[in-house]
Amino acid sequence: MTQSLRPTRDSEKITINLGYVDLGSIDLLVKESAFANRTDFIRSAIRNELARHEELARQARARDNPVLGICHLARRDLEARRDAGTKLDLRVLGLLSIADDVSPDLARATIRSVSVLGGFQASKEVKSALQDRLT
Question: A Pfam family name for this chain (predicted)?
Fold first, then answer.
């Protein structure tokens, strides 16, 4: 398994729905220069909540023992697994990236299970081939 320091994207875009009063309150804080923009406020709020629950997250990470950060699987990694007759049980907290040149057949032959908390980047075909292995 190759560990890469550079994902294909450095963040994942999410969409949230907020009530008008909450949105107006955020806009007020932005207007008063407490935050540069809405995104700055939301990122700050998320980081504060993550810090507040860090002990719980630490315990869960210790129990589940996931790869933390970015896990990139290249075709050669999976070919080596196939040739050795072994399969991967992937647990990732961060980003799991499977190279574009990995075929659905190779992915199915070498990956027994996938659990990702964060982002999962792979071709549509590989994601579809692994759908029944996602936990």
Answer: RHH_8
Q: Assign 6 a pLDDT band (cuts: 50, 70, 90).
A: very low
* DSSP line for 45-105: HHHHHHHHTHHHHHHHHHHH-PEEEEEEE-HHHHHHHHHHT--EEEEEEEEEEE-TT--HH
The residue type at 34: A
Distance CA 103, CA 125 (A): 8
Distance CA 64, CA 117 (A): 12
Query: What's the half-sphere exposure (Cβ side, CA atoms, 13 Å) at 71?
Result: 21
> Does the CA dihedral 33-39-42-46 come out positive or negative?
negative
What ranges do the domains of the chain cover? 20-52, 63-133
